[in-house]
Amino acid sequence: MNRTHTLSKYLPEQAVPLIDRWIDYYRCDFKVARKRATKLGDYRARHKGFNHRISVNGDLNPYGFLITTVHEFAHLLTWNEHKGKVKPHGQEWKMNFRKMMEPFLEMKIFPDDLEVEISNYLRNPAASSCTDVNLFRAIQAYNIKEPNTAETLLIENIPTETLFTIRGGRKFKKLEKLRKRYKCVELTTGRLYLFHPMAEIFVAG
Fold it and tell me: Is residue 147, in this structure, part of any structural domain at all?
């Protein structure tokens, strides 16, 4: 299976040619990864004969996959320019992320509501699109539910004191909101965790 065909399974169709060119131009090993709970994508700088390496979670919808891909390529470009001498998500990365997002905005790839949130986010990009609740919510709205899978809810949409489970079966109780995240207690251990408002959870009927 050729790379263009593979990319077209994960990216909006209009974005495929440019991402494909970037992979060659920047000599990057690009990988579609399994879902990772702690990150959406990853960048590793070239070293000891290895190319730049980028991986992006394959469970993202096409818009989320594209935004994460551009995020990681902005890290690559920043490394090429500064060789690790600047902060990972400092002004240099922010400038490169804005610059690399421009062609996709010009292509009008994104739905209007999502484009608005992307434009707002680009004023001061953060370490992850997940940290901008409005952008993350707009991206998640375009998820397609797989058939024959259990119905998920977002933790921000369930009442305080509700019991819920996460993938893997661990059980929690939702507590109060602390700034931007919800404090939850794991029932079996009593340990406290902070959940992103858009975290997908399961509630018994």
Answer: no
Mean per-residue pLDDT, 175-196: 91
Tokens matching residue 146: 């797989």
Q: Which domain holds residue 181?
A: 153-201
| Residue carrying structure tokens 């993350």 | 136
pTM: 0.78
Are residues 18 and 59 located together in one domain of the fold? Answer: yes
Radius of gyration of the chain (CA): 18
Q: For residues 168 and 28, which has the higher predicted lDDT (pLDDT)? A: 28
Q: Identify whether residues 91 and 163 lie together within a single domain.
A: no
Residues in a beta bridge with 153:
201
